[in-house]
Write a structure and sequence with these properties.
Length: about 280
């Protein structure tokens, strides 16, 4: 599998990125390991912002800590590298201070459903107009390979030499249960699809969550491009993402792991409600 990410293919990837029309978004070259799933997610985000014609001056990328947390360093626009697990509250402050900004939150599985797991439900239930890109590699990548809240039972890692005994959380079903108004899952091998779905997520008015299956090629030897490739499948063509219970059933499936938009609904955002209450208060 690693052969697919030879030095040549990395150079080809960089060259094709140079001609993809996303130059406006690129800053420093990513320092991730060659083949890391986070590359496709980053490029998918560049493409989405390009498609939506959002300018860097109107964009804020807020991240937590982790390999995933390095997004703001590799993108133009404003960026905040927050504390571990605290990207969502920081992004909440940014969005409330200036609702005109396009605010994208990026974090890992450890960051978002481990240490930061208490913030995710509240941003979702409040329907803040944020896009949350959750990069799930089922491991703590930056700290070199400890089990995370999405690691499967039995997984051997630096902190589980005899196999993980805790049951994994599923970020997609969590987002649905928390009341997120746009919930999707993608696989970082499919960059075009990543950018299509992230574009829809940013367009969505309200809290959108994109769960990205994003392999850590360095430290996770169990959850890999190959293992996911063998298990993923697009949602059925006739599926309509308008029923939370139907979405939950499909999002729970492990064979296959479905990809696509599970759920979307349009209700007032937190910012709209805040404006309404401010007007009411002014009227006395
Ligand atoms: C308060 C705090 N606790 C622990 C750490 C150490 N730490 C840094 S990144 C990380 C886990 C990152 O894993 P994940 O969020 O899955 O991101 P990945 O690196 O896999 O993309 C941990 C435990 C920290 N920086 N701050
Ligand atoms: S350690 Fe894993 S998550 Fe971090 S850059 Fe390398 S492959 Fe990616
Ligand atoms: Mg991780």
């Amino acid at each position: 599998m690693r052969n697919a990410y030879s030095k040549r293919s990395v150079i080809d990837g960089i060259n094709s990125a140079k001609t993809s029309g996303t130059q406006v978004w690129r800053d420093n070259l990513p320092t991730w390991c060659p083949g890391c799933g986070h590359f496709a997610a980053l490029h998918g985000l560049y493409e989405s912002l390009n498609i939506l014609k959002v300018s860097p001056k109107d964009t804020v990328l807020v991240s937590g800590i982790g390999c995933s947390g390095r997004f703001p360093f590799f993108s133009k626009g404003f960026g905040l590298h927050a504390l571990h697990g605290r990207a969502i509250p920081v992004a909440t402050g940014v969005k409330i201070a200036n609702p005109e900004l396009c605010v994208v939150v990026v974090g890992g599985d450890g960051d978002g459903v481990g240490i930061g797991g208490g913030h995710f439900p509240h941003a979702a239930r409040n329907n803040l107009d944020l896009t949350y890109i959750l990069l799930d590699n089922s491991i703590y990548g930056l700290t070199k390979g400890q089990i995370s809240p999405t690691s499967p039972v039995g997984m051997v890692s630096a902190t589980s030499p005899y196999g993980n005994i805790a049951h994994p959380l599923n970020p997609t079903t969590l987002a649905l249960a928390y009341g997120a108004t746009f919930v999707a899952r993608v696989f970082s091998r499919e960059r075009q699809f990543v950018s299509e779905i992230v574009t829809q997520a940013i367009r969505h008015q309200g809290f959108s969550m994109v769960h990205v299956l994003s392999p850590c090629v360095e430290f996770n030897k169990q959850i890999t491009y190959t293992s996911w490739q063998e298990t993923v499948a697009r949602l059925p063509d006739d599926y309509h993402p308008d029923d939370r219970n139907d979405a939950m059933k499909l999002a729970e499936s492990k064979h296959p792991i479905h990809l696509g938009v599970f759920f979307e609904s349009n209700i007032p955002t937190f910012e709209e409600e805040m404006k309404r209450i401010q007007q009411k208060a002014r009227q006395g």
